[in-house]
Amino acid sequence: MPWLEFMEAIFGEDFYFVHFNRQVGVADAIMNENAAQFLRNIFRKNIPLAPSAPGMLMIDLAQAEHPLGEPLMEESELAVFVSAFESSRFTGSINWYRNLDRNWHFMADITPIIPQPTLMIYGEQDTIPESENLKNSVPNLDIVRLDCGHWIQQEKPEETTQAILKWLKQQHA
User: Fold this and answer.
1) Is-contact 119 167, C-beta < 8 A?
2) Mean pLDDT per segment of 10 residues, for the chain of length 173 residues?
3) Which residues pair with 118 in a beta bridge?
4) Which of 20, 30, 39, 102 has its CA 20 to 30 A from that of 165?
5) Residue 166: how many CA atoms within 13 Å on its side-chain side?
6) Domain boundaries, the chain
7) In this structure, are strands 70-71 and 118-123 parallel, antiparallel, or unpaired?
8) Element (H, E) at 120
9) Whose CA is closest to 88, among 20, 23, 31?
10) What pLDDT shows up at residue 138?
């Protein structure tokens, strides 16, 4: 089943992958209009787990005046992201989600095995669960788990760097 059909069946039409594809341009415009607020609201940690409210999460984040959780970055660090997205806008990033079905069709006859040694760093508090089947596609996989959420590099920059350097050193030993 194509990705978007699968996600729509499981998560509904307001799931952001689905929304980006079914209502092209809507989220882009709102996120572009509220770039600083959206980025300030999405780069958070210690967000209380709660059932998601009806509506499209990314649009809600772009419009929320009182975000949950704590900021991940200092204002000066966040300003780098804001400046980049105010310049480039959000459509390019959203287009990755819009290309999922095309990639699914393109890869239909390809055995998805990555034989190269690979490092995956998971945030143990990420709401996106760790893949139980990743080793089936990536047999030479090493996994590092850090005590953080989704934004691993921003939340644990030193630990992320150390995990990568340690892994690279092991590859060249």
Assistant:
1) yes
2) 91 90 93 96 85 76 90 95 97 94 90 94 91 94 96 96 97 89
3) 141
4) 39
5) 11
6) 3-106, 118-171
7) unpaired
8) strand 118-123
9) 31
10) 97
Alpha-carbon distance of 70 to 146, in angstroms, equals 18
Provide the pLDDT for residue 108.
87
pLDDT for res 55: 72
pTM for the whole structure: 0.83
Beta bridge partners of 17: none
Q: Evaluate whether 143 touches 133 at the Cβ level (below 8 Å).
A: no
Q: Residue for token digits 């980049």?
A: 84
Q: In whole angstroms, what is the distance from residue 17 CA to residue 20 CA?
A: 5
What H or E segment, with its residue span, contains residue 26?
A: helix 26-33
Rounded CA-CA distance 71/119 in Å is 27
88: its two tokens: 């480039």
Task: State the residue for tokens 């030193």.
Answer: 158
Phi, psi of 54 (to 5 degrees): -60, 150
25 Rama sector, left if φ>0, alpha if ψ -120 to 50, beta otherwise: left
Q: Please give the Cα distance from 67 to 128 (Å, whole number).
A: 19
Query: Residue 163 and residue 169: Cα distance in Å, rounded?
Result: 10
Q: Which helix (H) or strand (E) holds 142?
A: strand 141-146
